[in-house]
Amino acid sequence: MGIEARNNDTSTKPSLEQQLDKAEAAVLRGRQSTNQLHIWWRKYLFFLSLLMLFFSFHQAKKPGEECMKAAQIVNQEIIQQSSIFVKDSVVEIMGLIMVGLLSSFLYRSGPMKLSDPSYVFATVLVPLQIVAFFNNRKMICKDLAVSEANEISPGLDRPFPISLVFHTVVTLSCGFMKYQMDARNKDVQAVRDMRKDLADARQVRKNNKQGQKKISSKRSSRGQIGDSKKKK
Q: How far, in Å, CA of 112 to CA of 32, rounded?
């Protein structure tokens, strides 16, 4: 009875191969769920980029409006000089372009790679926008102030570009998602390496058994030859 119970216990225990199958299925499910979560998060970032485009467009309009109010322009010829207003909106225009590039980057399917051209061009604009922002902290038309005889009131403080904040969010999200997928891929690879090591160990054990059988057969054959010689 005791031997039969022990045999039943060993038969109910899963083999190492079955345990590896369960482990591989679990890590594959984890990787798939992580990938699905990243897809949803990427869609959320894309819709957020559309909202950022709206706010960036609003920020791009603000310097020109403040320039018109501060200078109190009534001369139609000066109003037609759009370069004066565009020059004071360089920070906001770069932000609008940056958000548009990030939106294109998020809209594409496939893995999010930081080497994507849209993301690279958006990143190139980051230092340029920061330098332009700190060199133009006030929203005021400098060229117009020089050309006008009357003094104009000091401009308003320029708000911090929302595009830089959104670029930081996208960069951190991409880095975190890459870290998660790398961890999941390492788990899958670890289970597959264990399976390969198990197969190699079994092959080595099989080869050793075959070698031992050959050695034992040679020894037995030598023994039989020796016995036959003694009989003679």
A: 16
